[in-house]
Description:
single chain; mainly alpha; Helix Hairpins; 2 domains; three-stranded mixed sheet; 4% strand
Amino acid sequence: MNKLLFNLLALQDVDMKIRALKARLAMLPAERAANEKKLVAVSAALKARQDQLKTTEVAIRTAESEIARLNDNVQKLQVNSVLVKKNNEYQAMLTEIQHNKDKISDHETKLLELMETADAQCQQVKTEEKQSAARIQSIKDELQEFTSLEKEIKEQGRTLVAKSKDFASRVESSLLERYTRLLKDSGTPAVKLDGEICGNCRSKVTPQTRNACRSGMIPNCDNCSHMLYCDTGNE
């Protein structure tokens, strides 16, 4: 491989690594945002479980308070019933006492159901808290890894940019100009000629282009304009 081609390919190798690092770096904000979104979702799911339990606990306290109030009413009615002399008033009072007792029974049934629900929800919250803590820590670790990776990529990038400038200074100016123009595209500027086929567009080149390439020159593909090289060029 001649020196001209060696320096060009060395430059291209470094520049392709720089391009790959830039692509990886460009992906980090979206990946970081996705993990932050997961973090919010995990916290929200846990809070929803906790809020359900709080709602049930409030309902339990409300039911207990209502049972206490109704029991108090029953006691007062029972005390006052002794003082009632008229039968119809006494019967009305007994009816009210029974009505309060029926309500107490309904509230006690509801209270038992609520307590069972609270027990189940409490277990769910404990499980969710444990799982969420592990998941949150895992996500935070990933976010920290993104920060470390970003720093590492930038450090590697600075090193490679310095190498790129060094190799670029060794490439002949007209060749470097052609290379730099092609580097702006997404493909690889210099590709190997595979027999008579361009390594980029896979089109057949003209005999003149093939012969120029085999003689050690670095011509452009007749179809896609990418730079072509052969390993059989002059040393």
